[in-house]
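Recap from last week: sequence in, structure out.
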Amino acid sequence: MSDAVVVSTVDLTKVFDETITAVDSLNISVRENAIIGFLGPNGSGKTTTIKLLLGLQHPTSGSASVFGMNIAEDSIEIRKRVGYLAQDPRFYEYMTARQTLRFVCRFFYEGPKELIETRINETLDIVGLTGVADRPIKGFSVGERQRLGIAQAYIHAPDLLILDEPAASLDPMGRRDILALLMQLRQKTTILYSTHILSDVQRVSDEVIIINKGKLVTQ
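Predicted structure tokens:
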């Protein structure tokens, strides 16, 4: 884990409908090449914080930076270097895992087809989907879908991987596989993942950020 800071927030605040404060003067930091567990009960503001960092929502007040760039001004440049897995990822059910990654690659790569296919094969291998890469996604298990979600987030070798509740809907074996995958990816990128499962955080995280009702409890 490096001392370099990848994510930093200063009094980051998001208020909905002028009455609901989802994120309340949040001050957190994420260091390079760390696995950071972002912990809190459902409704604590984890997903809203993630959407603010990605530029999918705009802060009511306060600020945040990712790679030293302002989330309000440099959102597109930030997203080029970030991989994101939503809490409930959706796919085109008729497509295969390989076709899905090929589709996502079009947003990031403009190179020789052979190099793109090599990257796709490498990513399928990393997430353990090589054996089912050419099956329609509609037949995938919940665990296979989550691993595909991580694959599409990681396909462009991002400097920061943000995962929203990547193991919440899985059984114990599926959660174990996802946590093992996070440990593998930590050699290559910084990982910020939200969860409400304390045991998962204890198993794989270098640091933990705990929030409740939009406020920082501790980091």
